[in-house]
């Protein structure tokens, strides 16, 4: 529209210039000196004159025409002409042409309208050239069948999810195969899973395998400030999809528009609910949309409206969870295709050291490893770069420039040694594989654990062992320096130990006195004394006592372990002060009270050991209310 407006303005200006040219064409007359003109008036040689401002044209007695200009305004000229009986005429002021008058009168209004249209287009995101009144047009981006290069071979780590959606590909390729038997393909597929697990990638792979158009849009693109715009965009999107049928509509983050109705301040009339209502009608209304499959993704299925999830709309729910060790290995191999690798890189070993990583995390790991190799001008990426990348992602970048006093380094070494020793001695705990006193991120030191296998649930004994190891750092400081010299470095350890104990008692039913009961208001809310309405004051006191008993029992156990291994605590501190980082083999030497081997000796003796852990951490605080392993928080000063 802007181009058309400019074109019409140019045409108008050209026409005005043409008209002005025609109107201004006159026969040129010889110019006369004004003083000579006055003498001719005085001598009576002038017959008549035409006065047009300061321009004077006239005729002499010899029928000669002349033109002259007054250099200054001459008020006496009219009296002189009257005295000599010379005919004098005046010229009517010229009026602008009709087109010029229209342009002058309407230009301010046209300018205001143009400015209003411009800002409305910007506010509505309509700058793509679709016109100022395109508020209700769909913002879905269409990818043709030739534009999508993703296939199932590019999706790894979610074999069950791929099986659930594979029949969608068969239907889009050959719908009659199902229709002749009376079968109907699901109209909607809802993909549920944590962020970064590959929901969007799986949807693109379906379109890539079926070779059909792919409409992609975010849930937030429907909702605007004007009521009714979102519903109009939903209608327009399905109209476009009908023209490209069979096709796939992918709505990312559908919870932005699909939340439960009736919870907003606007009742049933606000924009989000109107948009949701229109989507419900389009998916399963009076008109069927054959050949259109709606795929939506969310990591918050609990907030979706029940009407979206009923059969006939999102018939099938596909869970795309975090990959297991085999899935992580497959994902790593997919991302490693684009990276030149050294012969010592083993995807299986890296997968074992990255529990809890999503597909996006693993892609980031491969990218960080490639960046590490590029910084040192290497031509291939080796296992060393993958280890560095893993440590950076889990613990943060090393802050070697941070200046620590010798006393602070010594106390940090004792603190981390306390965590490591208790974690090694307690009966059920993930193995300690690395301890470091190099500051990373906000932490002054880190003790890292490597799970032997992916865990789906935790036993009571395992949880209590974790609490004991969390207290190991604070207890080491207390035993070595005394109670008055204990620092604030264990604040995060205490917080996490208390959180685990609270959940054991109030949510997981692991208290002997209280039994398997839920004492939190909901699964995402921790028990808060005085705020919970589903228990008596007496029960709250019992809960407090049980939590304290769990913490005290494991605190005393950790203290006894450290006192029994005080010599190991001192030698591990010395090793940390010497090497700054010690690994699993060196920790084995320390716990066996042997001479600590050099890192170079480990590299030479254990290169062939493919089962040697090369990474892993429990820096990640437990997901889905599962407890996490240890990582060191920053020490406050």
Automatic annotation (TrEMBL):
Its main location: membrane. Residues 597-609, 621-637 have a biased composition (Basic and acidic residues). One of its GO terms (molecular function) is ATP-dependent peptidase activity. InterPro entries: AAA+_ATPase, AAA_lid_3, ATPase_AAA_core, ATPase_AAA_CS, FtsH, P-loop_NTPase, Pept_M41_FtsH_extracell, Peptidase_M41. Binds 1 zinc ion per subunit. It is an enzyme of class 3 (hydrolase). Its EC number is 3.4.24.-. Its cofactor is Zn(2+). Homohexamer. This is ATP-dependent zinc metalloprotease FtsH. The gene is ftsH.
């Amino acid at each position: 529209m802007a181009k058309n407006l400019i074109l019409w303005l140019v045409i108008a200006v050209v026409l005005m210039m043409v008209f002005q040219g025609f109107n201004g064409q006159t026969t040129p007359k010889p110019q006369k000196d004004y003083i000579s003109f006055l003498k001719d008036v005085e001598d009576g040689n002038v017959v008549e004159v035409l006065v047009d401002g300061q321009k004077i044209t006239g005729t002499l007695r010899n029928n000669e025409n002349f033109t002259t200009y007054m250099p200054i305004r001459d008020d006496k000229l009219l009296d002189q002409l009257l005295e000599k009986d010379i005919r004098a005429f005046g010229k009517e002021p010229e009026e602008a042409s009709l087109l010029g008058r229209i342009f002058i009168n309407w230009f301010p209004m046209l300018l205001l309208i143009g400015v209003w249209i411009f800002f409305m287009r910007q506010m509505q995101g309509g700058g793509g050239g679709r016109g100022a009144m395109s508020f209700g047009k769909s913002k879905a981006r269409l990818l043709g069948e030739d534009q999508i290069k993703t296939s199932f071979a590019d999706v790894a780590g979610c074999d069950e999810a791929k099986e659930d959606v594979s029949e969608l590909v068969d239907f889009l390729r050959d719908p009659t195969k199902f229709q002749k038997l009376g079968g109907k393909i699901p109209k909607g597929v809802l993909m549920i899973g944590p962020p970064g697990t590959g929901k969007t990638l799986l949807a693109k792979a379906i379109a890539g395998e079926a070779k059909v158009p792919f409409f992609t849009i975010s849930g937030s693109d429907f909702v605007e400030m004007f009521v009714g715009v979102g519903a109009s965009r939903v209608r327009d999107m399905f109209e476009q999809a009908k023209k490209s049928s069979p096709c796939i509509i992918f709505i990312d983050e559908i919870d932005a528009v699909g939340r439960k109705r009736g919870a907003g301040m606007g009742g049933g009339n606000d924009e989000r609910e109107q948009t949701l209502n229109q989507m419900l009608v389009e998916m399963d209304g009076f008109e069927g949309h054959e050949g259109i499959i709606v795929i939506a993704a969310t990591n918050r299925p609990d907030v979706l409206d029940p009407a979206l999830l009923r059969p006939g709309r999102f018939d099938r729910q596909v869970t795309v969870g975090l990959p297991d060790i085999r899935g992580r290995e497959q994902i790593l191999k997919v991302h490693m295709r684009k990276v030149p690798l050294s012969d010592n890189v083993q995807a299986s070993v890296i997968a074992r050291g990255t529990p809890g990583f999503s597909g996006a995390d693993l892609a980031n790991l491969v990218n960080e490893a490639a960046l590490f190799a590029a910084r040192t001008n290497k031509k291939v990426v080796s296992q060393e770069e993958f280890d560095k990348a893993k440590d950076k992602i889990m613990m943060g970048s090393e802050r070697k420039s941070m200046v620590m006093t010798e006393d602070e380094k010594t106390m940090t070494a004792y603190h981390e040694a306390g965590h490591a020793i208790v974690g090694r001695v307690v009966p059920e705990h993930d193995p300690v594989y690395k301890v470091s006193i190099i500051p990373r991120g906000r932490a002054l030191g880190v003790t890292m654990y490597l799970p032997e296998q992916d865990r789906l649930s935790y036993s009571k004994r395992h949880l209590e062992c974790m609490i004991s190891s969390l207290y190991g750092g604070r207890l080491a400081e207390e035993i070595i320096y005394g109670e008055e010299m204990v620092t604030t470095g264990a604040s995060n350890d205490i917080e996490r130990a208390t959180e685990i104990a609270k959940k054991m008692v109030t949510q997981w039913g692991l208290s002997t006195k209280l039994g398997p009961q839920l004492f939190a208001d909901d699964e995402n809310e921790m028990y808060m004394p005085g705020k919970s309405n589903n228990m008596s004051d007496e029960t709250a006191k019992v809960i407090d006592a049980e939590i304290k008993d769990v913490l005290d029992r494991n605190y005393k156990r950790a203290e006894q372990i450290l006192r029994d291994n005080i010599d190991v605590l001192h030698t591990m501190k010395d090793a940390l002060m010497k090497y700054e980082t010690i690994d699993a083999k060196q920790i084995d030497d320390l716990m066996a009270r042997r001479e600590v081997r050099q890192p170079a000796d480990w590299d030479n003796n254990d290169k062939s050991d493919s089962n040697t852990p090369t990474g892993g951490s429990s820096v990640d605080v437990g997901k889905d209310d599962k407890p996490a392993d240890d990582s060191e928080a920053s020490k406050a000063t």
